[in-house]
Write a structure and sequence with these properties.
By secondary structure, chain A is an alpha/beta fold. In chain A, about 35% of the residues lie in helices and about 25% in strands. Chain A has helices at about 45-50, 75-80, 95-105, 110-115, 120-140, 155-170, 185-200, 215-220, 235-240, 245-250, and strands at about 5-15, 15-30, 30-35, 60-65, 65, 80-85, 175-180, 205-210, 220-225, 230-235. Chain C has eleven helices and two strands. Chains in contact: A-B, A-C, B-C. The interface of B and C includes residues 40, 229, 269 and 272 of B.
Chain lengths: ~260, ~300, ~290
């Protein structure tokens, strides 16, 4: 199987509410897969399930053939899944560079001992390596010139880009983008589109959630549609766009663009 | 030679300096778990107590050399912290704070009832076995504490702590094992509190479990809140001011806690960053001295 | 013997419940542990003492005075120390609350001195009543009676009045309640007033029970009452009542079986245990945050 990520009949219940209901989904290696659906369909919940923030009530999730359901988030991140958040979760008090350095956390080893023995050559070498890698990630999203700004002070669009840089610093095999284009103007969206294409070209599989149809259609290889926690369609953009069930799900629910 | 130097300083003034030194060590310790990692510990005096009594008993029962004594007290306190940290640090914010407070009270009551700590009578601590005079040791340890804190602040370890402080979920999603880092941070903090306690015990010559109650924990918290949570120069400044103030305001000693209370409220409402929180002190000082920073530091400077 | 300890426990526990209610209501509505709450209990005790000792009021009038005074005090504290911090981090509000607590207890120390003061004898002459092989004093009856009456009164306000409904709405969802037209600031002030009134009553009752009123009674009582609130489930009013009673009974039994020198530690041990094993307490509910 070439599926990098597999969701196998995944269900999650919060009390009486079934947020995700028996979803089967494969993310193929090297593709850009988009997950769309009306608000409240459960898209972010799927991301949270994948990254280990909630364990599924039923079903399995496997990454690279190994089961990851129920593992804590830090292990999953260490395994090569990076993500951004729907409501930006940057480390606001820290600098832009520090944010990305934290993204690069799993690429380092020295812990408390390294902190206390900071002047040790091996430790300094690692810090230098991390610094270089973080700067590289920042350049990829064109934020290197703001390395020492406080993350919370960045304008909105740049904050979103910073989150991507931070996730890239993990050097993930799979990148989860949760509404990366939200709140961006058309110019910023065009830049983002190119950015995601470049990321994929570098070998990263991209799985994104988005509301902007134009953005999604122009970018994705395949699209899956979620409604009320159930997958109602899956396929190439042209197929999905013409699918009557999809059109119905969006009808009258304030479909965007 | 050192003894001569120390003896030449007015003893009253020396006492103030040593108090400041110990205060700095304690404040920096608390700063790591509360300022850097964002976990409010309201029971840190308990660790000071553990360190104090461990050190006192080591001197009383074994007459060990003081430097070894200090190290062992610190390590033992850190071990205790790691042990209770594992279950406790799963709690969040307010609950954690209250839990640490509860734990500290339990420690106090237990020490007040244990034979080995001489129950409510407390312990008299003889002079430590050391070639170097106490005040010099305190100075050296304070300097070490400042160095260690600075190293931690700018390391991969410190970054992880700051990430946990700012957003735990995001931190976990970046691969940071929250539980492990919290416990380590807690242990380091406790180590410094234990060392501070040991120094305190030997300098004062007498300790009693009641000395290490809630008010002592608040003392330490006030120092870092005044100076600015998370700021190392802030912790040093806050500790200095609050350790020295009681002496200069001796006639106002009964007002001390009154002032602390009002100070905490005032700071939170009007200047939550404290005196030096958010201020890049090294850059400020260098600028005043006319030194122009280069390279990356310069870029950082221009952003301030 | 069992019955006696049970009676003692319920009397003590009722006072813990009175204080715990204030904690739980405030936490339920603005997610703040009102550290200063214990000091309000202490101030209430002193006001009651003053009313009886200086103005020769009878105990009920003194209690009412204490309650009114503390209601005002509670509202002022909220306004000065917590309201400005409503948008700030929880840490800031907690530190501010600690500051208020320290301020009040130091103030009491300065004004009243360090020694505990007792209620004059004519405050409430207590007789012993015999039930089975136990004695219950009329003072204990008073405590249980007053506590019960106040708690029933509180339940009535919360369940059956408009302001009570507003309180419940605000504690469920602050923002939505505001959008629905609830004057959130007023509701919060009202909550503080209610909680403080109950704590004040508790202060007077405890002051009489132990015949000791001192500047540092607030800290210990406050922490124990907080333990009771957590035990019952923080945010739950019936939980606070239940927790208070359970804590009182446990403490009394613990002392009776020989752990009297660990008396204070019992409450903390319970607190730590509950927090580690079942942080939502006996009657509380778990709240999931959206990521």
């Amino acid at each position: 199987m070439t599926a990098l990520l597999r969701l196998d009949n995944v269900t999650i219940r919060f009390g009486g509410l079934v947020a995700v209901n028996g979803v089967n989904l494969d993310v193929e290696k090297g593709e850009i897969l988009a997950l769309i659906g009306p608000n409240g369909a459960g898209k972010s919940t799927i991301f949270n399930l994948i990254t280990g923030i909630y364990p599924p009530t039923e079903g399995g999730i496997s990454f690279n053939g190994k089961s990851i359901a129920g593992l804590p988030p830090y292990v999953i991140a260490g395994g090569g899944i990076g993500r951004t958040f729907q409501n930006i979760r940057l480390f606001n008090e820290l600098t832009v560079l520090e944010n990305v350095l934290i993204g690069a956390h799993t690429r380092g080893r020295w812990g408390l001992t390294g902190a206390l023995l900071k002047l040790l050559p091996a430790v300094r070498k690692e810090e230098g390596r991390l610094l270089k890698w973080a700067s590289h990630c920042l350049s990829q999203v064109d934020l290197a010139h703001k390395a020492f700004d406080r993350a919370g002070n960045l304008p909105y669009g740049e904050q979103r880009r910073l989150e991507i840089a931070r996730a890239l610093a993990i050097e993930p095999a799979l990148l989860l983008l949760d509404e990366p284009a939200a709140g961006m103007n058309p110019q910023e969206k065009r830049t983002l589109l190119e950015m995601v294409r470049t990321i994929r070209a570098a070998g990263v599989t991209v799985f994104l959630v988005e509301h902007d149809m134009k953005f999604v259609m122009g970018l994705s290889d395949r699209i899956a549609v979620l409604d009320y926690g159930v997958k109602i369609a899956e396929g190439r953009p042209e197929e999905v766009r013409a699918n009557p069930a999809v059109i119905e799900a969006y009808l009258g629910k304030g479909a965007t663009h | 030679m050192l003894h001569g130097l120390v003896n030449s300083i007015d003893p009253y003034f020396l006492q103030i300096l040593v108090n400041i030194g110990i205060g700095i060590i304690l404040a920096l310790g608390l700063n790591i778990i509360t300022g850097l990692t964002g976990q409010l510990s309201l029971g840190h005096a308990a660790f000071m107590s553990v360190g104090a009594f461990t050190g006192a008993l080591l001197t009383l029962k074994t007459g060990a050399p003081f430097c070894l004594n200090l190290l062992l007290s610190g390590l033992f306190t850190a071990a205790v912290a790691a042990l209770i940290g594992w279950p406790i640090l799963r709690l969040t914010g307010d609950y954690l704070a209250i839990c640490t407070l509860g734990f500290a009270e339990i420690v106090k009551v237990v020490f007040l009832n244990m034979e080995i700590t001489n129950k409510a009578l407390g312990l008299t601590v003889p002079s430590p076995r050391s070639a170097v005079p106490m005040p010099v040791i305190v100075l050296m340890v304070a300097i070490l504490a400042i160095a260690a804190s600075t190293f931690i602040q700018n390391s991969r370890f410190g970054r992880a702590l700051k990430a946990i402080r700012d957003d735990e979920i995001a931190a976990a999603s970046m691969g940071i094992n929250i539980a492990r880092y919290k416990v380590q941070s807690f242990a380091v903090s406790a180590f410094m509190a234990g060392v501070g306690g040991c120094l305190y015990a030997h300098f004062l010559g007498y300790i009693n479990p009641s000395d290490f109650g809630f008010l002592k924990s608040i003392d330490m918290l006030s120092m870092i809140v005044l100076g600015g949570l998370g700021s190392i120069p802030g912790a040093v400044l806050g500790a200095s001011i609050l350790s020295a103030a009681p002496e200069f305001l001796r006639f106002m000693s009964q007002y001390r806690m009154l002032v602390y209370g009002a100070l905490l409220v005032f700071l939170m409402v009007f200047r939550p960053n404290g005196l030096l929180g958010g201020v890049n002190v090294t850059a400020l000082v260098l600028r005043k001295l006319g030194v122009r920073p280069h390279g990356a530091a310069r870029k950082q400077e221009e952003k301030q | 013997m069992l019955l006696q300890q049970l009676i003692n426990g319920i009397a003590l526990g009722s006072t813990y419940a009175l204080i715990a209610l204030g904690y739980t209501m405030v936490y339920g509505i603005i997610a703040l542990i009102n550290f200063a709450h214990g000091e309000i209990f202490m101030v209430g005790a002193f006001v009651g003492l003053l009313m009886v000792g200086v103005f020769k009021f009878n105990i009920f009038l003194a209690m009412v005075c204490a309650m009114i005074f503390c209601m005002v005090l509670g509202v002022v504290i909220e306004f000065v120390a917590y309201r400005p911090l409503r948008k700030s981090s929880r840490l800031s509000a907690l530190i501010s609350a600690i500051g208020v607590s320290i301020f009040l207890s130091s103030l009491a120390l300065m004004v009243f001195g360090a020694n505990a003061k007792g209620f004059p004898d004519q405050a409430f002459s207590s007789r012993q009543i015999h039930i089975g092989d136990a004695d219950i004093s009329t003072l204990q009856l008073l405590i249980i009676g007053v506590s019960a009456a106040l708690m029933i009164g509180l339940e009535f306000i919360v369940r059956k009045t408009r302001i009570g409904k507003a309180m419940r709405a605000t504690s469920e969802d602050y923002n939505t309640a505001a959008l629905m037209g609830v004057n959130v600031n007023f509701v919060i002030s009202f909550t503080f007033a209610l909680g403080s009134a109950l704590a004040a009553a508790g202060g007077v009752l405890v002051g009489m029970l132990f015949n000791a009123v001192s500047f540092n009674m607030g800290l210990m009582a406050g922490l124990k009452a907080f333990a009771a609130a957590v035990l019952g489930g923080i945010g739950s009013i019936p939980g606070a009542m239940l927790g208070g009673l359970l804590l009182g009974v446990t403490e009394v039994f613990g002392v009776a079986i020989g752990y009297s020198s660990y008396r204070d530690a019992i409450a903390f041990a319970i607190l730590v245990l509950v927090l580690l094993v079942r942080p939502t307490g006996l009657l509380g509910r778990k709240v999931l945050t959206k990521v």
